[in-house]
Design brief:
- The protein is an alpha/beta fold.
- It is built from 6 helices and 7 strands.
- The chain has helices spanning 15-22, 41-49, 65-73, 93-97, 119-127, 148-152; strands at 6-8, 31-33, 56-58, 83-85, 110-112, 135-137, 141-143.
- Helix 2 (41-49) runs parallel beside helix 3.
Length: 155
């Protein structure tokens, strides 16, 4: 018997009550899309604790703000997913910078944060020694594979 590994519940209007109802069933999920469900940062902590096997987590287009990015940077217990989408969540430059100093996010391969960030914020994310593998979209693609000379010139 197979187990459910991929769940797309985007644009279902779940809200906090719906997210709480899902928590007991989330353990084996590897890919979860909860985009556009009116989720707030209040449920993010519980979601993170319920997702020990998560590989791709999409929280895009929810009013999460900086608090969610900060919670994810300090992910309790489980290893963070290699792909994390926090695009269009009301994250500011402060929230966008939360993952940069976090050693817990070293496995991150793709981070979409779409913050209203400036050049200094994007530069801090791409240069973070704690995000060595990550391709970062904040708001446009910033590939860590760019050479240092190209990054200094703004290319």
């Amino acid at each position: 018997a197979g187990r459910l590994r991929i769940v797309d519940l985007s644009s279902n209007g779940l809200g906090a009550a719906g997210a709480h109802a899902l928590l007991p069933a989330l353990g084996p999920i590897e890919r979860l899309d909860l985009a556009n469900n009116d989720l707030t940062s209040d449920v993010v902590r519980e979601l993170l604790a319920a997702l020990p096997n998560i590989r791709v987590l999409t929280l895009r287009t929810n009013p999460l703000g900086d608090a969610a990015a900060e919670l994810i940077a300090e992910w309790p217990g489980a290893t963070p997913p290699p792909t994390l989408d926090l695009g269009d969540t009301g994250t500011t430059a402060r929230g966008a910078l939360a993952p940069a100093p976090s050693g817990r996010l070293a496995n991150l391969r793709l981070l979409r944060i779409d913050a209203q960030s400036d050049t200094a914020t994007r530069r801090a994310l791409t240069r973070s020694r704690h995000l060595p593998l990550a391709k970062i979209y904040a708001p446009g693609p910033l590939d860590r594979s760019l050479s240092k000379s190209k990054r200094h010139r703004g290319a």
